[in-house]
Amino acid sequence: MPANLDLAAASPLLCAGVTMWDPLRHWGFTKGDQKKTVGIIGVGGLGTMGIKLAAALGHRVVAISTSANKEALAKQKGASAFVVSSDPESMKAEAAKIDIILNTVGAPHEVSHYLSLLATNGHIVQLGLVTNPHALVQPSLIFSRLSICGSLIGGIESTQEMLDFCGKHNILPDT
Questions:
Q1: Fewest CB within 10 angstroms: 71, 97, 143, 162, which?
Q2: Does 137 score more than 90 pLDDT?
């Protein structure tokens, strides 16, 4: 644990922190100078952690929620933009602009609803556990080379990398 982080305050990093860090790491968003656009679906505990990490990495962060009541919180945590997923005009404003979306929602919903936000070669990473099946229309996946994948939590190396990054940038979860 980095010495500058209070152990009690930092302990959720060992779950929420690495859950959000590991997909960014796996898909190449923690290394290199090329800045991308990261979408975060859900502005709760995991979502705000993801917003903080992606923003500190220098990426443009788009927070995505079903209603506008989380916009101020998302922007306070570092989001550059906000999408109300229940508003077609709001969705249209970010269409085909997001390189990776981390989906933290653990309630039943259709992941295909968010495909229009992905840029060519984009990924939606499922983090929230939803046991209901999702309906997918394949052309949107095929024509833009999109993928829907999952991630659980990182291992020891990823966790240490995330802790060091959080220590360097003084990032703590909201508790």
A1: 143
A2: no
